[in-house]
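quick one, two chains, predict together pls
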Amino acid sequence: MQIQTRDFGMIEIDQEEVIEFPEGIPGFLEEKQFVLLPLDEDSSFIIMQSINTQNLAFITIEPKEIIANYEFNISEKTENLLKIKGIEDIILLNVVNIKDSVEDMTINLAAPLIINIKENLGKQVILDNNKYPVKFKFQIDDDQTQEHSAEEMMG
Amino acid sequence: MLILTRKKGEKILIDDNIEISIVEIKGNKVKIGIDAPKDIEILREEVYRSVEQENIDATRKIDLDSLKSLKKKKE
């Protein structure tokens, strides 16, 4: 199928690439279908593009590219909604916000997108725990030699 | 909207599975305890609103070329 994208013009995608967000996402509850489009082959950024609305797209990034030991519990409700059977089923993405320039980039660590890549189901969960900020400041540093890892826990 | 007045230690029942109790009242702060089934999502309203606003702000179109210098970390 062909879709109109905000950043890449008209593109061809497979029906199997469509990720369903049964509950929509906060601010866009009616938007239930997205596709993940890497910015380019070796980029850290992934564009999450709405299937139905050309101008609705988010820049996202995997938390392991940002911080070490990103940890939270996934509720039973979310596990059921996304049909998660094991940690290997899911990827995490965090929404990137850029106000005027890349220098003021923030990343929403308080509300990760959990995507079951085996079932193509997604949900943005909100971690109401004061541990991770909605606006986590992040600078692109050309010399990123630090070791990063992400650990997620099933709850 | 239903408005109820409660004292410290008093509770409110919603259906037969949600119990809200007033744990502490101190100045303009009220500490509330909520007992509810696991599949009920409970959030402070302003946290939800801030995520909503953050999502809306994040859809603004920017020049993606400025992001291309950040390469994926080697596993």
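Chain B has a mean pLDDT of 92.
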